[in-house]
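Dear colleagues,

As part of the handover before I leave the project, I'm documenting each prediction I ran so the next person doesn't have to rerun anything. This entry is a single chain, and its sequence is reproduced below.
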Amino acid sequence: MKICIVSDSHDRADALAQAVCEAKALGAEAVIHCGDLIGAQTIKPALAHGLPIHLIHGNNVGDTQALHRQSRASGGLLQYHGADARFELGGPRIFVVYYDDYGYAMACTGDWALVCCGHSHQAEARRIAGVKGAETWLVNPGTVAGLAAPATWMLGDLAAMRFELREPGREPVFNASISA
C-alpha cells in the first residue's frame, strides 16, 4: 500500500492539495498529515481527491471543533485523531505525533513499524533501533507549505517499507528503503 505523508501545511490549502493529487497519481491510497494544518478549511481541497486522510493537529492547533465536524461530515474520508494517532494501514502499525523529538522517542520503543512526525520542517526517513531489538522507520516529510525550507512531502510504500522525499512537481529528492 502506498501512502502520502505530509506535515506543516500551515493554511496552504493549494500546496497540500497538490501533494495529495501527485501522490494519488503515483498510486497512494491514503494520506497521513502529521500536524499544523491550522484552519479546518485547509483540508477541503485535499479531501476532494477522494483519499482517506488521517490528521493530527500539531502545535498550531486551529479550530478542533471544526475539524471534528468535518471528520463527521466526510463520510469516513477524514479521520481527525487529535494530538496523536495509532492505527494500521495495509498491515504495519503506525504512530503519528507532531513533535520530532517525541517521534524519535516513540520509534525507540520498537512498538511501531512506522512513526511519522513533523514540526522541524526538515525532511528525513531513517530506521531507528528500538529497545526491544526491532527497527522502526521514523519519517518526517518536512513542510508541504515550504516555510523556512523547501516544500516537501513523502511517498511511502508500506509493503516494501520504502520512502521517497518529493518536492511538488519534481522527481524524488531521495529514496530510503529497508535495504538502504
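Residues 13-25 form the longest helix (13 residues). The mean pLDDT is 94.

All the best with the project,
I.
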